[in-house]
Write a structure and sequence with these properties.
about 120 residues; alpha+beta
Amino acid sequence: MALIPEDDIEFLDEKGFAYGLVQAAGEVHLVLHKFPFPKYRPTEAELLIRIPAGYPQAALDMFFTIPDVKLPSGGFPNRCDQHPAIGGKTWQQWSRHSTWRAGVDSLRTFLSAVIREIDKGI
C-alpha cells in the first residue's frame, strides 16, 4: 500500500522532485530535497509537508524547512520564526494557511500555493 495516493506520486515524478516519504505517528512526512527558494538564503532547502491521516479529504497545512531559510537581509520571513521538532529534527515552520477544498485540492494544488508563497519573498 502506498503512503500517498498514486496521483501524487505521479505528480512528484512528473515534476522531477527528489523526495522521500516516511510513515510517522498518524501522518506521512513528505520531504522534498533541494527545494528552490530563489529569493531567500540559502537558495534551496529540504521542504517538509505533513500529510495527515484522512488525506486527501483532510487538509494539508503549513510547510517546514531545514536549514532555516531567511530573507537576504538576514531576518526571518513573515510568520517563519517557530521551530517545532518533527521526526527527531528541528524544522523552521512556515505558517501559511489556505482554504482546503476536499475532493478538489491535492498535493499538486498545495505545492502550487507553497511556490506562490515562496515567490512573494516576504
